[in-house]
Design a protein that fits this description.
With 128 residues, this protein is mainly alpha-helical. It has one domain (28-125). Helix content is 67%, strand content 0%. The chain is built from four helices and no strands. Helix 2 (32-61) packs antiparallel against helix 3. The protein is elongated and about 95 Å long. The mean pLDDT is 80.
Length: 128
Amino acid sequence: MPWPPSPRPRLLPRPFRPRPIETAVDLDRGAQPERTTMAWSRTWLALLVVTAVFLRWSPHYGPGLLVLPVVTTGAALLVALTQRRRARRGVHGIRAERLTADPVGPILLTALTIAVGAAGIGFVIAAP
């Protein structure tokens, strides 16, 4: 090791390069799109639980009940498969300050909930 030690090389600062905004945390510390994504995740998980309940009922209510698990499983898959698109749309919409509400998903989910609830009540009332 030579004496005196050589001076440390001077490090140049890196130029600032903003990261691309892809997630809610990158954009919004309140993480509204992330909370919405988590809510939709709970929704499709709840739909799968409802599917399991209907499958549990199927020996008691017959094959007519099997329509309900097919419908709820399809709805759960639809919610899960469109979740990333909704989250990305929310992040970019907030960034551009041009986010508009899309009521189609909640309206369809409300209609599904009412229909499945009514069908469940119908099956319970008409129980053998």
